[in-house]
Amino acid sequence: MNRWRLILLPFSILYGTITGIRNLLYKVGIFSSYEIPVPSIIVGNLSVGGTGKTPHVAYLTSFLKDKYNIAILSRGYGRKTKGFLVVTTDSIAADVGDEPLEYKSKFGSDVQVFVCEKRKTGIEMILKQFPDTDLILLDDAFQHRAVRAGLSILISDYSRPFFRDFVLPAGNLREWKDGEKRADLCIFSKCPPELSEQNKTHYRSTFHNPQQVFFSSVVYGSLIPLSGHSIPSDISDIILVTGIANPKPIREYLSSEAKVTPVVFPDHHRFSLQDIHRIHEIFRNFTHGKAIIVTTVKDAMRLLTEEFKNETNEFPWFMLPIEVDIEDSGRFTNEIIQYVESHKRSS
């Protein structure tokens, strides 16, 4: 724990006590949870910040969408709207949030995507409007105790695991570490390329069911142009624009390709024209024609708007796709499919 954050320890104890009492009230039944009547999977975490939930939801969707009618439900963090909304390919991030729009952009008509801050209301609306839904994936609902999914997957960053962290504000945990006991599976994300069996054994031992621990790593795709520009044959400089919780891994990856100049914004930042002009001004400092501007897919969802199109078309903007690779993927896939098959509604 950062020594400066030790000052905040009393507030962490207070916050942890409040969340602990809340969890206890749910556990003993004083607070009730809505049991989702169809197969449902929560993908969430114990900590704030980027653990990689979005690419893991996409990973699940990729291998399940051909077998089941999938609905993805998110709160739509950062959107200006309220209530239940159906996400379409014509939606904008300001209305539905960047992550839901990313799912819809990636999977199109293969899945239905929805946003609703009250998950119970969202689920009821989904089942009413789309009664053929076979499976609901809930993005970032681990602490949303008002609903109870059939399967819960906890994502924890390998470099910042939940068992080495502390409750907010002295640490980054949203609740005490023992909240991991509510999860059925745990995935340690963003693992280094070479992970020793000794480290795997240690990490498995921190979860209440060591047999249900998996490890995933980040896989970066090829750059995708956001305008009509092509990738220079020999890139010398990259202006990396990010508005995500943890841009460090992307910066380190791109640094092996060229010199990286980071332009960092807060997580889920709403870009303004002033921001775009500032980025372009930085780009103009690189006059040799071998520089490009790179952003994440999630950030691109907030940049691909009519307001910015005329501004960005003149510059070589690219987005960097991110996927995950889960070690022992066959066993992981079987665990998920076995759950869905054993909990399917009778027709």
From TrEMBL:
InterPro entries: LpxK, P-loop_NTPase. Pathway: Glycolipid biosynthesis; lipid IV(A) biosynthesis; lipid IV(A) from (3R)-3-hydroxytetradecanoyl-[acyl-carrier-protein] and UDP-N-acetyl-alpha-D-glucosamine: step 6/6. Transfers the gamma-phosphate of ATP to the 4'-position of a tetraacyldisaccharide 1-phosphate intermediate (termed DS-1-P) to form tetraacyldisaccharide 1,4'-bis-phosphate (lipid IVA). Keywords: ATP-binding, Kinase, Lipid A biosynthesis, Lipid biosynthesis, Lipid metabolism, Nucleotide-binding, Transferase. It catalyses: a lipid A disaccharide + ATP = a lipid IVA + ADP + H(+). The lineage of its organism: Bacteria, Pseudomonadati, Bacteroidota, Flavobacteriia, Flavobacteriales. It holds the Pfam family LpxK. This is Tetraacyldisaccharide 4'-kinase. Belongs to the LpxK family. The keyword Electron transport does not apply. ATP binds at residues 47-54. It comes from Wandonia haliotis. The keyword Nucleotidyltransferase does not apply. Its EC number is 2.7.1.130.
